Amino acid sequence: MIEIKNLHASVNGKEILKGINLTVNAGEVHAIMGPNGSGKSTLAQVLSGHPAYQVTQGEVLFEGENLLDMEPEKRAHAGVFLAFQYPVEIPGVSNSYFLKAGLNEIRKSRGQEELDSMQFLKLLKEKMKVVEMDPSFINRPVNEGFSGGEKKRNEILQMAVLEPKLAILDETDSGLDIDALKIVSSGVNKLKSPKNATIVVTHYQRLLNYIVPDVVHVLVNGRIVKSGGKDLAMELEANGYDFIREEMLQNA
Amino acid sequence: MSTENNQYVSEFTAFQHNGAAKSPAWVNDIRTSALAQFTEKGFPTTKEENWKYTNITPIAKSQFKYSSAAEEISADLIQSLMIDGVDQHVIVFINGHRSKEHSSLSGLNDNVVVTNLIDAYASHGTLIRQHLSKYAKMHESPFTALNTAFLNDGLFIHVPAGTYVEKPIHVLFISAEKPGEQTAAHIRNLIVVEEGARVNFLHSFCSAEKNANLTNVVTEIVAGKNSVVELVKVQKESESSYHVEDLHVHQHRESTVHIFSLAVGSAIARNDMSVIIDGESTECNLNGLYITSGEQLIDHHTFMHHIHPNCPSHELFKGILMDKSRAVFNGKVYVEPEAQKTDSKQTNRNLLLSDDAIVDTKPELEIFADDVKCTHGAAVGGMNETHSFYLKTRGITNESARGILTVGFAAEATQKIAHSALRHHVDLIVVDHLRKKFGTANLPDIVHA
C-alpha cells in the first residue's frame, strides 16, 4: 500500500529523518516506536504533507502514486488519514459541519455523490457508536472544550467517517486514561479490514496490548534501527530504549 | 475657518431660522455653542493623535446636505432587517427622522418610553435637560460638535426603576438616498435606564440602497444603579457611505453593561466608545468584531474610565481584514487612584487575509492605583497554518479551510453577546457577509459551545 524509500526530511534546516525505509501492505498494522525526538511524529507529519517539513531526499509511493507531490487534501482524497497527537480546536464551527465538509470533498474526488444532511447525520450517528461518543458532540464546536480523551475519540470518529485506506495514529494513547484507551483502541480495531492498513506511532508499549501490531519498528535518531514482531515491543518495554543503543554501539 | 465648514454654517443658520429645529430654547443655546466649537476647530486631520490613523478627508471634502425629512422606504426592507424568530419592539429612523409608519411598539411595558427626542421634550423635558449633552463632550470631537450643532431629533428611551423589558428593543437607523444628493443625518440618541431595570437594545445601522451619505451619531446612555443593560450595535451601511458614532455610557454603582459592536459597513467608519464606571462593584463588557474589505477603513476607539474600586471591565475586539482595507483599534484604559482592585482585561486580535491589508492597534493604559489587575494584548497575523493543515488532512480544500477558520475566528467575538437571539442575529449577519466576501455559499453557520 505504501512504500517509503530512503526518506530524508528536515525542519528549519535541521535534518530529522535520515533515510527511512518502510513498506506497509494492506491488512497490516505496523507500530513505530522510539524515544522522544527520534522523528516518529515528524514521519507522521511528513506523510500527511505538513508544510513546515521539507523532504530533501527519497520517495513515497502510495498505491503506486507519488504521495509527496500531493497537497495534504489530495492525500486525504487518496485515502491517507492522520490522527493528530494534538487535535486543533475550531471555535464556532460544528463537529458535524466539519466532518460533512471533509467527507463530501473526499466523495467528490472519488466520483461519488455527496451526502445530504439527513444521510450524513444517519452515517455520523452510526459511527459515533464505534467510539461510544455522546450524540451532543454532533453540534458542539470542533474539539472546543473537549477533554484530552474526547479529542482523541473525536479523531477516531473522523477516521470512522472518512474510512481511509491508510490511517496513521500519532501518539493516540498520550494523555488517555485506561478507560478512554480501551474505547479508542477498540474503535481502531473495529475499523481494521484486509483492505486498509494502520501505522501506530507510540512511545509506550501499552497501546500495543490493545492494538496488536504485525510488525514493530524502532526509530532512533531518524532511522529505523530494528524491526521485528510484536515481541520486540515487549522487549523495549522491559529494557527501555538503551538496549537498542547498546546494540547499535556493539554493531558499530 | 476652512472653506469646507462654510456650508455647515450657512446650513446651520437656515436650520435655526426655518423652523426645522423643533426643540426648546435651551437646546438652541447648546446648538449655537456647538457650532462655534465646530467652526473653530474644523474637521480633524491625521496630525491629531486621536485621528492619526484615520484620514477623514473624503468626509471633509463632501458636500453633505442636512436631511430635513424621512425618505420613503419599503416595508420589505424593514422586514428583512428584523431579528429572526423573536418578538421585538421596533422603532425606525430614516435619515435621523422617526418613521411612525414603520415602527411597532405594541406590547411595550406601559411605563417604558420609546420615542423620538422631539416628542419627548414635552413629557420628559426635565429628564432630557438633566442628561442631554452631559456625557458626549463637544470639545472632544469635531463630529460630536457638528452633531450637537444640528441636534434636533433622534432616539429617546426611558426605562423606569425596576422595570424588566422582556423583548429586545430594536432601533433601526436607515440611511436613504435623496436623489442627486449626499445627505448628512446627525442623529442624537439618549437612553436613560433607571435603578434596577433590565433591557436589551439592538441598534441597526443600514442603508436603503448603495449611497454615499454621512451618518453622524451621538448616543448617550445612562445605566442606573444595579441596572443590567445590553447594547448590540450592527453597522452595515453601504460601503460607499460614511459613519461616525460617539457613544458614551455612564454607569452607576453595581450596574452591568454589555456592549457589542459589529462593524462591516461604510467606506470610512469611526466608532468612539467611552464608558465611565462611576460607582463601586460595577461591571462593563465591551466587545466587538470588524470585517473590512475593498478599501474600507473601520476604526474603534474605546475608553474605559475606572473611577471607583472593585470594578471589572473586559474588552475583546477582533478584526478580519481583506483586500486593501484598513482597521484601527485604540483601546484606552484609565484607572484613577481611588479605583483599587480594578480588574481590567483588554484584547485585540486581527486576522489578515491579504498582504495589502493594514491594521493599527494601540493599547493605552494609564494606571494610577497600585492594587489592580490590568492586562492587555494585541495580535496581528495571517491564517494559522497548523489549523489550516488540520482541516486539509480531512480532505477540505484550502479555500474552504480559510472560510471555516474565518467563521471560527469571528465566533469567539460574537459569543460575548449576552442575549441569545441577538447573538444568533449577529452570527447570521456575520456569516452572510463573509459568504458574500468569499464569493461562496459554502461556509458553515456559527455555533457556540
How many separate helices of chain A? 8
Number of strands of chain B: 20
Number of strands of chain A: 12
N-end to C-end Cα span of chain A? 33 Å
CATH superfamily of chain A: P-loop containing nucleotide triphosphate hydrolases
Strand order of the largest sheet of chain A: 6-9-10-3-11-12
Mean of pLDDT of chain A? 91
CATH class bucket of chain A: Alpha Beta
Average pLDDT reading of chain B = 94
Q: Report the major sheet of chain A.
A: 6 strands, mixed
How much of the sequence of chain A is in beta strands?
Answer: 25-35%
Description:
The complex is a heterodimer of chains A (252) and B (449). Chain A contains 8 helices and 12 strands. With 252 residues, chain A is α/β, with parallel strands linked by helices. Chain A has one domain (2-251): Rossmann fold. In chain A, the strands form 3 sheets. In chain A, strands 6-9-10-3-11-12 form a 6-stranded mixed β-sheet, with helices on both faces. A 4-stranded antiparallel β-sheet of chain A has the order 2-1-4-5. In chain A, helix 5 runs parallel beside helix 6 (178-191). Chain A is globular and about 60 Å long. Chain A starts with a strand and ends with a helix. The relative contact order of chain A is 0.18. Chain B has 449 residues and is of the alpha/beta class. Chain B folds into 2 domains: 3-278, no CATH class; 386-449, no CATH class. Chain B contains 9 helices and 20 strands. In chain B, the strands form 2 sheets. In chain B, strands 1, 4, 5, 7, 9, 11, 13, 15, 17 and 19 form a 10-stranded mixed β-sheet that branches. The longest helix of chain B has 19 residues, at 420-438. Classes of the chains: A alpha/beta (252), B alpha/beta (449). The A-B interface holds A 48-52, 71-73, 75-77, 81-82, 84, 87-88, 90-94, 97-99, 101-103, 105-106, 109, 139-141, 144-145, 158, 162 and B 385-387, 389-398, 400, 404-405, 407-412, 414-415, 442, 444-449.
